[in-house]
Structure formats: structure tokens, C-alpha cells
Automatic annotation (TrEMBL):
Family, similarity comment: Belongs to the bacterial solute-binding protein 1 family.
Chain spans, region Disordered: 27-65
This protein's record includes keyword Transport: yes
Taxonomic placement: Bacteria, Bacillati, Bacillota, Clostridia, Lachnospirales
Matching PROSITE patterns: PROKAR_LIPOPROTEIN
A Pfam family reported for this protein in Swiss-Prot or TrEMBL: SBP_bac_8
Coiled-coil region: none
Alphabetized SUPFAM superfamilies for the sequence: Periplasmic binding protein-like II
Keywords (A to Z) from UniProt: Signal, Transport
Protein's recorded name: Extracellular solute-binding protein family 1
Species: Lacrimispora saccharolytica (strain ATCC 35040 / DSM 2544 / NRCC 2533 / WM1)
CDD domains: PBP2_TMBP_like (cd13585)
Signal peptide: 1-25
Top-rank taxon: Bacteria
Length: 452
């Protein structure tokens, strides 16, 4: 097996990486804390290994080479509603899969990322968990310890493979060994641009369709509305604190740069755009220290005309602002990129019934389980057929997310990523914004820190 250049990590490093990677979403809902107190078996376990599923009881013969079996599935849920929803999905699958497969759900708390640490300990200790919910940041450690099953052959032979965008599979590969798929897509969060239609109307502009138009919209929406000589509305809510690397990445790609080499002229120009909108006063002066809470509060109060986040904040936005909030996918320039948050599933190499486990995780990825989970939690489905249903197409925030998934990506998962996200990026970008260093110097520092 080809190994990535990432060594075996201690549990402390794994936990730190997961917490740092949670800028998009710590858990599957993207916004809420885990409420489960500990690991427990769900009520859907009522059909035990000694009792076959409803279909088997009715005399149906399991199809293919899959024999009746029990699959142990570990997952986390962000709140009690999501916990019950997962139990309902497991129950429905057990009753309807027609192949004698009984999924036994074991719930474990996310606990700030300790979920993955505990899962690693369990598998290294010989635990009999067959499959589990997942975060991409865990993948290198588990792959380097030969704990994950290679899903590539099963996905290639899956009749619903084309129901998931190729870009999503590519992201799964990048998290593993760059060649194989060890992670099954489930649901995502895609960053998009929030905007206030009332401010756009006052500025006399339409939704920007290109990166250049987006920069122009930021300028035009920066206004002195009462004539006192002071800016009342800023065009963009910039996130300069930790977590800001995700929306920042869109500016880099807008000029044709990439996260693979931050020192190219195109990447440096994207950084210069970021600096310019700060220096020209198109963002609040507090932008260098603004985090999630600040950019959302500024947008909701009308201080900013646009900001960047995902569907995790959309319900509160709509509740507060009604029709005076909408969204669009980050527009294309020379290239196009937006950050993607993730929650997936995996099958462990130790699973004795991998085909049966794949029936379950594929049900979550593109079956009824996908529809039930994403409708119930408000996360973005990876299944194209589910995305095309009225529930998602009629939601403007979901639509913006779906529009962005084809070019969504992640910050490279490396040994250095945790420190880079937590400290190097915010400190270095702050220096660039305030003029202490140039765009070129900023990008050289960021490149050296990420790829040392």
C-alpha cells in the first residue's frame, strides 16, 4: 500500500488536528454541540444477530453473495433529535434492505474531536466496530495503520457511483493515499456568499457572476448612507481570525492560484486582493481579529453587505432577516474554489462482511438514508438525485451550496496543518493586512509553514 508522507500520530496530535479542522463544522450539523453523554447502543438494535430483519422473516432470499449478518456501526449525533433520526434510519434500513443485514447502531459523543481518538484506540485494541461516521482529518492516521478498507472496488462497481460528483471522490482520495478511496461520502457543508438584497438594491448592483464583479460589488456596497462622512455599510465581512483561511482560499483561486503552491504570481495577486479590500476600507476595521461570531453579527446587523459561511447558519439568518438575506456560490475568476466541510463514513479493514457494510454506507450516501438525514439535519446531500428534489432546490441556501460543490475543496491535510490553521495563517495574514509585510512575503511564509 502506498503511504502518504504523514507519520503515525499520537492521540494528542489527532485530537488537535480534528479540533483545528473543525473551523467549518465540528460535527455533522455544523453548528451544535454534542449532547450524548457516552457510548450507547441505539434502540434500532432491537433486531439482534439472532433475529433476522423483516425481509428475511418474510421469506425473502438475500441477494448476491451477501449472507445474513450483523453490522456494528458507530456514530455521533449533535443533539437528541439527530440521535433519534439516526435510529429511525437504521430501523428503516433493517426492515427494508431485503438482504438479511442488521445494523446495530452504537452512539458515541463527538466530545470536541475525542470521538476519533476513542475510535482509533478501539480499533487498535481489536474492537469489533465494522463501520463508523467520519471526518477526513482522521484518514491519514488510520490509513497509515492499515485500519481502513479500500472502498475503491466497491464504489467502482456500485450502480449509483455517478450519483455523486467526481469532485467529491477526488477529495476523498486526497485525504487518503491520493490513489484509493477509503472514505464514503455522506453529507457536506459548502461555503457560499451571503448577501443582503436591500443593500444590493441601494448600491444599484446585481448578484456578481464573476470574481471581478464580486470585487466590484464589495466596493460598491461600501457606503456612507447618512452623509456624515463615515462608512455605515461595509461591502464584505472579512474573517481574519482563525477559520478565515477557508473563505480566503476563494480569493487565491479567483486569481488562478492554488493551495498547492502559494508563491505563484497568481496566488500572490489573490492575497493582494485580500489586502486591498482591507486597506481601502471595504471591510470593518476589526477584520483582522473577527471570527465567526463577529462576521455573522455584523452581517445580521446590516454593517456588512456580504459575508461567507454555510447552511449551518442559514436558519437563524432567515428567521432574523426573512427575505432580506440570500446567497450565491463564490463566482469564478481564472479558477474557482470554495471550502468544504465534511462528514463521511468508513468501513474498517477488520470488518468480516464488507459487502454488507457497504450496503449500509451506500444507503446513507445515495439511498433513503441520505434523504432522511439531510432533510432532518439541514446538511447538504452528496447525492445528485436527492439534491434535485424540491426540498433542496427550493431552498436558496442549499441551492448555493449545491452550485459550489463541483469546485469545493479542503485545506491540505498534512503534519503541519494544525499549527498552520491555528497560528501561522491568522498571524501572518494579519501582518499583511496591516502593512507589516507584503503579499509576496506573506505567501512565502504561508507556503513554508504548510509544506515544510
Amino acid at each position: 500500500m502506498k503511504k502518504r508522507l504523514i507519520g503515525k500520530k499520537t492521540m494528542a496530535v489527532v485530537l488537535a488536528a480534528l479540533m483545528a479542522g473543525g473551523a467549518m463544522a465540528g460535527c455533522s450539523s455544523g453548528s451544535k454541540e454534542t449532547t450524548a453523554a457516552g457510548t450507547e447502543t441505539t434502540e434500532a438494535q432491537a433486531t439482534t444477530a439472532g433475529t433476522q430483519t423483516t425481509s428475511a422473516k418474510e421469506g425473502q432470499t438475500p441477494s448476491g453473495d451477501i449472507k445474513p449478518c450483523t453490522i456494528k456501526f458507530r456514530y455521533w449525533a449533535d443533539n437528541t433529535d439527530y440521535s433519534q433520526l439516526m435510529q429511525d434510519i437504521i430501523k428503516k434500513f433493517n426492515e427494508e434492505n431485503g438482504k438479511g443485514i442488521t445494523v446495530v447502531g452504537e452512539e458515541s459523543p463527538w466530545d470536541g474531536g475525542a470521538y476519533s481518538e476513542n475510535l482509533f484506540n478501539a480499533k487498535m485494541g481489536g474492537g469489533d466496530i465494522d463501520c463508523a461516521t467520519w471526518k477526513l482529518t482522521s484518514t491519514p492516521l488510520f490509513v497509515n495503520n492499515d485500519l481502513l478498507a479500500d472502498l475503491t472496488p466497491m464504489i467502482d462497481g456500485w450502480d449509483k457511483k455517478a450519483d455523486i460528483d467526481d469532485n467529491i471522490y477526488e477529495i476523498m482520495k486526497k485525504a487518503g493515499d491520493m490513489e484509493r478511496i477509503y472514505v464514503m461520502p455522506w453529507n457536506i457543508q459548502v461555503l457560499y456568499v451571503y448577501y443582503r438584497p436591500s443593500i444590493f438594491k441601494k448600491a444599484g448592483i446585481e448578484v456578481p457572476k464573476t470574481y471581478e464583479e464580486f470585487l466590484q460589488a464589495i466596493e460598491k456596497c461600501t457606503m456612507d448612507t447618512d452623509g456624515d462622512g463615515k462608512t455605515d455599510v461595509y461591502g464584505f465581512g472579512m474573517r481574519g481570525a482563525k477559520g478565515g483561511q477557508e473563505p480566503w482560499g476563494s480569493f487565491i483561486y479567483g486569481r488562478g492560484g492554488s493551495l498547492e503552491d502559494l508563491t505563484t504570481p497568481e496566488a500572490v495577486q489573490g492575497m493582494q486582493d485580500f489586502i486591498d479590500i482591507y486597506k481601502k476600507g471595504y471591510v470593518p476595521p476589526t477584520a483582522t481579529s473577527d471570527g465567526f461570531s463577529e462576521i455573522i453579527a455584523n452581517f445580521q446587523s446590516g454593517l456588512t453587505a456580504m459575508t461567507i459561511h454555510h447552511t449551518g447558519s442559514s436558519k437563524d439568518m432567515e428567521k432574523l432577516l426573512g427575505d432580506d438575506v440570500s446567497a450565491f456560490a463564490f463566482p469564478a475568476g481564472k479558477d474557482q474554489w470554495t471550502s468544504m466541510g465534511d462528514t463521511e463514513t468508513v468501513i474498517f479493514e477488520s470488518c468480516e462482511n464488507k459487502e454488507a457494510a457497504f450496503e449500509w454506507v451506500s444507503y446513507l450516501a445515495a439511498g433513503e438514508g441520505q434523504k432522511m438525514w439531510c432533510e432532518g439535519t439541514g446538511n447538504v446531500p452528496v447525492s445528485k438525485s436527492v439534491q434535485e428534489t424540491d426540498f433542496f432546490q427550493n431552498n436558496r441556501f442549499m441551492k448555493a451550496s449545491i452550485d459550489g460543490q463541483k469546485y469545493a475543496g479542503i485545506i491540505p491535510i498534512l503534519d503541519t496543518t494544525t499549527e498552520w490553521i491555528s497560528t501561522l495563517w491568522p498571524n501572518t495574514v494579519s501582518q499583511a493586512l496591516t502593512g507589516s509585510i507584503t503579499a509576496d512575503e506573506c505567501m512565502k511564509t504561508l507556503q513554508a509553514g504548510l509544506y515544510q
